[in-house]
Write a structure and sequence with these properties.
- The structure is a homodimer.
- By secondary structure, chain A is an alpha/beta fold.
- Chain A has twelve helices and ten strands.
- Chain A has a six-stranded mixed sheet with strand order 5-4-3-6-8-7, with helices on both faces. Chain A has a two-stranded antiparallel ribbon with strand order 1-2.
- In chain A, α2 packs across α9 and α5 packs across α12.
- The longest helix of chain A has 18 residues.
- The radius of gyration of chain A is 20 Å and the shape is globular.
- At the A-B interface, α10 and α11 of A face α10 and α11 of B.
Chain lengths: 315, 315
């Protein structure tokens, strides 16, 4: 396989684009494509202040690298979830993020859940029984809350995350297999801010396959954490990714087409916004003031209040 | 595994219903469920004249058997497509249908494509290049046309087909993976008649898994053709069925839930009928007078006219 641009040996073959590229041309292509997606989907401008959620994995660090190179101003936000049993997962991923920020001279904000709320994610899950044996739902609630809170507090224009196409397609697949129309209506690479206080959210990598973001991180020599979160084992999205990869290998481009044709159907107005949440459907949480669909206290404040009560009771 | 009703040895375990049944109770359950679906989805009444498309396979013969036992009046329609190279597929399946109708003393109409149009399905596909190496698209056009034509000519109230849940779910999956909204809008177990001349169409077995219709046919001793059409090898729907069965085995009920939640989303009005075809979008074919979305001649008449011209040219 030869590079389509220069004829030298290709390091990657992207079957869905029928495109093989050498190292240099792949890095160039990847960077240009990111810029193209940012513009095409009107994600942000050069003067915008971007908050980028970084986990220490390949996607978010690659995204930080690319948008920094493209000349955008993005500060990083690392949320220390305290997932440290067995593998020191949080500890090690935080190190990767810190090193990257330090080497590139980028501003990094660290939000430490244990410092903020007095307990770690696994503890909260255990004490509140939310998620039973898995803390994934507590973790999701917490990350969404903290990202929004810090983005607003820091007066950022937009919150960016490193989700790639495989992530997005797995979620889309899960929502479709159950026809969860509420979620389908809300799934989009650009979510506008809401008057009640949700920050604008964008996913500049949503059209890249996972292996492309991995290739970018690898070829740039970015030092990232390779393991998945230890709680992700057996997650439905991982299973859906396997199914989709199986289909992709039979029909290259299937994943991209699945997602893009979904966006097209939405743009063309085929989904009726019957139950989409509107600003007036949201309340402001009595405790933290962030928007919530709950009547009084948001899920985040409820979860962590219960955790603190339960934790102090067993002391 | 024991029968849930009587405690004797179960012959089938339907994991999606957590229901194991012995032979007698399964046959009873299957028959009662069919009656329930017919009523719930308002498919037809006892006084209606039903035309049932029978292929000689397990589904359509099982359906004929069940609705006959339930006391409905259904005549059979067998379409002889002339697919006889190698395996005499059409010949053998027609024999099964004829024997069944004879044994049960049921009225059978046979439509012979070669007699009607002067060529077989494989010839038409070859001469018109529609479908290139596969005649499936020609076959689909032809069957739909002939079923509608004969149902109207015979003044039937409704056309029934033996499609089971696996069939429906595979089509739904294929339409969803490409977000073909036009097809998604039209997919339903009951399609009302249209003023321009489409007969009402129903699928009473749409909630049964394929293995259930097979079990019914087997346990009733129905003699049906076991092979798939020789042209079906490698068809996308067969591949989708495999994928869905893989997921079903991990999560029993996934297939049923996928289809029922889709119907629910439609009923709740989540799909905007932007491009659904309305009566005024249809013309009447200049040649046969049946409704068509084409401006002058319908796809059926075009295909078979071309076939006759091509066939006579090489004689």
């Amino acid at each position: 396989m030869k590079c389509k641009k220069c004829g030298s040996k290709a390091v990657i073959n992207m079957r869905q684009h029928k495109l093989g590229l050498c190292c240099d041309h792949f890095l160039q292509w990847f960077t240009n494509q990111t810029q193209r997606f940012i513009k095409k989907y009107k994600m942000f401008e050069f003067q915008d202040r971007i908050l980028l959620a970084v986990s220490g994995g390949k996607d978010s660090l690659a995204l930080w690298d690319v948008i920094h190179r493209l000349g955008y101003k993005a500060d990083g936000l690392y949320i220390n979830l305290g997932i440290n049993h067995d593998t020191s997962y949080s500890q090690r991923s935080m190190e990767k993020v810190k090193n990257f920020a330090h080497d590139q001279d980028l501003k990094l904000i660290i939000a430490d859940i244990e410092e903020m709320e007095g307990a770690s994610i696994p503890e909260a899950a255990r004490f509140t029984l939310r998620g039973k044996d898995k803390p994934c739902s507590t973790c999701g609630i917490t990350k969404r809350h903290v990202m929004n809170h810090i983005a607003r507090q820091g007066e950022y224009d937009v919150l960016a995350t490193g989700h790639n196409l495989d992530d997005e397609v797995a979620v889309l697949f899960g929502n479709t297999i159950n026809w969860q129309m509420g979620y389908l209506l809300r799934q989009h690479p650009v979510l506008e801010s809401s008057p009640k206080g949700f920050i604008r959210k964008v996913k500049p990598f949503f059209r890249f396959y996972e292996r492309e973001t991995a290739a970018y991180a690898f070829l740039r020599g970015i030092d990232y954490i390779h393991d998945e979160c230890p709680f992700a084992v057996g997650a439905k999205t991982i299973y859906y990714k396997e199914m989709l990869n199986q289909m992709e290998s039979k029909r290259p481009g299937l994943k991209l087409n699945f997602y893009l044709s979904f966006l097209r159907a939405k743009e063309e107005g085929y989904f009726a916004e019957l139950r989409a949440m509107h600003a007036e459907d949201f309340n402001l949480c009595e405790t933290c003031g962030q928007p919530t669909s709950a009547p009084k206290q948001c899920a985040y404040c409820r979860t962590w209040e219960r955790t603190r009560i339960a934790k102090s009771a067993i002391k």
